[in-house]
Every structure is written in structure tokens, then in C-alpha cells.
Specification:
alpha/beta; Rossmann fold; Dehydroquinate synthase-like, alpha domain; 2 domains; six-stranded parallel β-sheet; two-stranded antiparallel ribbon; about 55% helix; globular; binds zinc ion
Length: about 350
């Protein structure tokens, strides 16, 4: 029998990567010089939320205006498909060359999707480090038939100002840690799908994602203390996860059974908490199914200040059990440790109880 990976390795494989990444205090001032270097055109659209517009959109606009760029704004109210359509219309009508997504998640997702659909470029300017969408080619939209991320395009530039990110609510950073630690089980699920289903598996992308998870876990205490260097670790970990997805050409290295659970919980719970928080909870339980050290995952998440129980997340035990039983159906083509049949109600309840989640 030949190496099962050899056929994969010979087939053409497409990667779309960011060209410039700036991380550090005050890096917001690097946006205009980055635009100069990239030379993508003078017509710029800033996509941000109402609050981020006042705090960051306006000052960025002023910095760009000083250098001769013509800047317009789109203020985003929700992460719904209608908002993507509205931004697409602005891009086409105004002949926009470059879109800046400025904000936590919604604005960046909408900037990525609308620019990709219109053939414009996008620069990601995260103002919080709450999930790995800040650097990935994927985006998720509310109200779509697919509750998980869909392909958009990789940002051509990423500007992560750690001074701004450090001032965002700590809960957002803790959520970003949950999303990073999730790679611990996501990579195992990817490997399993390769072994069982012969799915493409990229060792480099897998290790890159896993490294992000390990670095965040190793620095849990410094992250909890809000040490600037540790915040930078989280930001870099999330950017590396985005790059891992770019290299893999799939969200596989970053999204496995723990993400299926997180998406399922978002569907069943009234107030499901943040994406990374749900992923963290999922990672504890999926690590147990994989026979990994789930107690360590739980301890690290707890040290950081991420929820490790349903009540800490603000969801009902019954909602966790329900989400566990439907998780395998969220994305049937994505084989994970949940298998094709998923968990029965009894198995789900036992798993949640044994890991102390409920
Ligand atoms: Zn995620």
C-alpha cells in the first residue's frame, strides 16, 4: 500500500495568503503607508460598526484622506446577508478598489465577503482578538442556511493594533483564546478524517494551527493578567490560524467537532455566548471523546477566564445536550470524532456530565 498522502501531494493545491501583516502598538498608523505600498487604487471603503466607526473608522479615514485617498464609509448594523448586499452595491456604485474591515468580527466578515464578490481587495483591521476570522479567507453570515464559515477571500493586509486590542473587553480576548485552544481537537478531527475517509490533510497547516493552540495554553496565566506580551501572543496565534486555513485551503485545521458543537449550540440556545467561548466548551468535551487530556484543557480555559461549564456560559444543560446530539448534522460532509451517527441523548448527557460541563 502506498502512502495515502502521496496522491494528495501531487494534485494542484491553491493557497491565498495575506501579503502584509503589521502587529504591534500604534500599528493603526501603518494603514495608510500599507495602502501606498500595495498600490491598489485610491477609492477606499471603510466597513465598521456604529461604535467602531466613531472610535477608529473616522481617525483612519482622516489618516487616509491626508495622503490623498478618497474614503467612504459603510456602517454595519448586523451580520446578515442583506448587509453584504448593501456593501456590495456601494463597492460597485462607487468604484471601490479596497475595503477596510474595521471591528471585532461582523465588519471584517462583511468586508471580506462583499469585496470578494466584487473583485476588490480587503484589509482586515481587528479592534478585538475574539476569533480567528480576523485573518482567514472565511466568513460567517447570520441567517444563512449554513451556520458555519463560507469561503470569501484572504485579506491582502492585516493591521492588528495591540494597543487598541488590549483596551477591548477582556471577555473578547478570552473568547479568542477559546478559539485558539479549539485547534487541539480540530487538528485531531482533520487527521481522523484523513485516516478514515482519505480526506486531504496538510501536515504543515495542521502543525501551524496546533502551535497556536499550544502557545496560548502555555501562556494562560500571563494572558489572564493581561500582560501586553501575552496579548500579542493571542493576536499572533489567531493570525497564524487564519494563515493555516489559507495554506490548507479549508477551515479543517481550525474547525472540527468542537466547532460543530459551537455552531449547534448557537442554533439551539437562546443566548449562546461568544463563538470562542462555545468552542472552548466544545473542546473540553471533544478532547474526552478523542481520549486526550481534557482535564488540562478545562484547567487552562478556567485559568484564562473562559467558561468551562454551561452555567458560566449562560446556557442550559439541556441546550448543551441537545447541541451535542445534533452537532454531526450541522455539516454532514465534515467527518469528525462524532462519526456519522453522532451522539445519542444518553451519550451526550454522560459526556457533558463527566467533563463537568453540566
Ligand atoms: Zn472558530
Amino acid at each position: 500500500m502506498g502512502d495515502p498522502m502521496s496522491a494528495d501531494r501531487r494534485a494542484p493545491h491553491y493557497m491565498q495568503l495575506p501579503r502584509e501583516v503589521v502587529v504591534g502598538d500604534g500599528s493603526i498608523r501603518e494603514i495608510a503607508p500599507m495602502c501606498d505600498r500595495l498600490g491598489l487604487g485610491d477609492e477606499i471603503l471603510i466597513v465598521s460598526g456604529p461604535r467602531t466607526y466613531g472610535l477608529f473608522g473616522r481617525p483612519i479615514s482622516a489618516l487616509l484622506g491626508e495622503r490623498g485617498y478618497s474614503v467612504r464609509h459603510a456602517i454595519i448594523e448586523s451580520a446578515e446577508a442583506s448587509e453584504v448586499d448593501r456593501v456590495k452595491a456601494i463597492i460597485s456604485r462607487e468604484g471601490i478598489d479596497l475595503v477596510l474591515g474595521v471591528g471585532g468580527g461582523k465588519s471584517i466578515d462583511i468586508a471580506k465577503l462583499s469585496s470578494a464578490a466584487c473583485g476588490a481587495h480587503v484589509i482586515s483591521v481587528p479592534t478585538a482578538a475574539s476569533h480567528d476570522g480576523i485573518a482567514s479567507p472565511y466568513a460567517s453570515i447570520k441567517g444563512s442556511e449554513r451556520p458555519y464559515s463560507v469561503r470569501a477571500q484572504a485579506p491582502i493586509g492585516i493591521v492588528a493594533d495591540t494597543e487598541i486590542i488590549a483596551k477591548s473587553p477582556f471577555r473578547l480576548l478570552a473568547s479568542g483564546c477559546g478559539d485558539s485552544i479549539a485547534k487541539y481537537t480540530a487538528v485531531r478531527d482533520w487527521r481522523l478524517a484523513h485516516e478514515v475517509k482519505g480526506e486531504y490533510y496538510g501536515e504543515y497547516a495542521a502543525n501551524l494551527a496546533l502551535m497556536s493552540s499550544k502557545l496560548v495554553m502555555a501562556r494562560a496565566s500571563s494572558i489572564a493578567r493581561g500582560e501586553p506580551d501575552a496579548i500579542r501572543t493571542v493576536v499572533e496565534a489567531l493570525i497564524s490560524c487564519g494563515v493555516a486555513m489559507s495554506i490548507a485551503g479549508t477551515t479543517r485545521p481550525c474547525s472540527g467537532s468542537e466547532h460543530l458543537f459551537a455552531h449547534a449550540l448557537e442554533l439551539v440556545a437562546k443566548d449562546p455566548g461568544l463563538h470562542g467561548e462555545r468552542c472552548g466548551l466544545g473542546t473540553i468535551m471533544m478532547a474526552k471523546l478523542h481520549g486526550l487530556d481534557w482535564r488540562r484543557i478545562r484547567a487552562v480555559l478556567g485559568r484564562i477566564g473562559c467558561p468551562t461549564t454551561a452555567s458560566q456560559l449562560g446556557v442550559k444543560g439541556e441546550e448543551v445536550v441537545e447541541a451535542l446530539t445534533i452537532a454531526h448534522r450541522i455539516r454532514p460532509e465534515r467527518f469528525t470524532i462524532l462519526g456519522e451517527r453522532g451522539l445519542s441523548r444518553d451519550e451526550a448527557k454522560r459526556l457533558a456530565e463527566e467533563t463537568g460541563v453540566i
